[in-house]
């Protein structure tokens, strides 16, 4: 008897998780657009303004920027997978009752969330790789400048 209640409670709990997952995907999409804008700003001159800072300051700046895109690269696919699996349970249950239209809706949500999650992960990964290369080059330039200044003193 407890076993049936536990499974029913678990089923309802998982069903309620779909909306936070969808909200999380929407938030990740917004953050991805934000990070893309920051990356474009850095490409077209934003990094040049940071040439005069110390290497430690720049390292903190770079670490913060990279953490955010790394989080997007990892969380997007996880949320997409959750958005895939959550509607499949009710969809398959609807299929057993002969409700093909409910299964079709569940499959549509499942595939859409997968695609959105993978898109977020792909773009987040690409932004992270490009930024790492830019930041490493910038950091080497800053360190070379610091070395040159120290050598002249």
Automatic annotation (TrEMBL):
Keyword Cell membrane: yes
One GO BP annotation of this record: protein import
Coiled coil: none
Keywords tagged on the record: Cell membrane, Membrane, Protein transport, Transmembrane, Transmembrane helix, Transport
Major site of localization recorded for this protein: membrane
Membrane topology: Multi-pass membrane protein
Recorded GO CC terms: plasma membrane
Location in the cell: Cell membrane; Membrane
Entry's transmembrane regions: 13-34, 78-96, 102-127
UniProt keyword annotation of Nucleotide-binding present: no
Domain MotA/TolQ/ExbB proton channel as annotated: residue spans: 65-143
Superkingdom in the source lineage: Bacteria
Family under the similarity heading: Belongs to the exbB/tolQ family.
Name listed for the protein in its UniProt record: MotA/TolQ/ExbB proton channel family protein
Species for this entry: Vibrio mangrovi
């Amino acid at each position: 008897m407890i076993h049936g209640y536990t499974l029913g409670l678990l089923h309802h709990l998982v069903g309620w998780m779909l909306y936070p997952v969808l909200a999380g995907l929407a938030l990740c999409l917004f953050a991805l657009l934000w990070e893309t804008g920051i990356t474009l700003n850095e490409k077209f001159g934003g990094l040049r303004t940071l040439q005069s800072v110390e290497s430690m300051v720049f390292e903190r700046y770079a670490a913060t920027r990279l953490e955010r895109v790394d989080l997007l690269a990892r969380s997007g696919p996880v949320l997409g997978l959750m958005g895939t699996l959550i509607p499949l349970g009710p969809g398959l249950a609807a299929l057993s009752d002969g409700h093909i239209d409910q299964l079709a809706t569940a499959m549509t949500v499942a595939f859409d969330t997968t695609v959105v999650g993978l898109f977020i992960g792909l773009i987040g990964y690409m932004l992270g790789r490009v930024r790492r290369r830019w930041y490493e080059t910038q950091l080497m330039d800053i360190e070379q400048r610091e070395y040159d200044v120290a050598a002249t003193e």
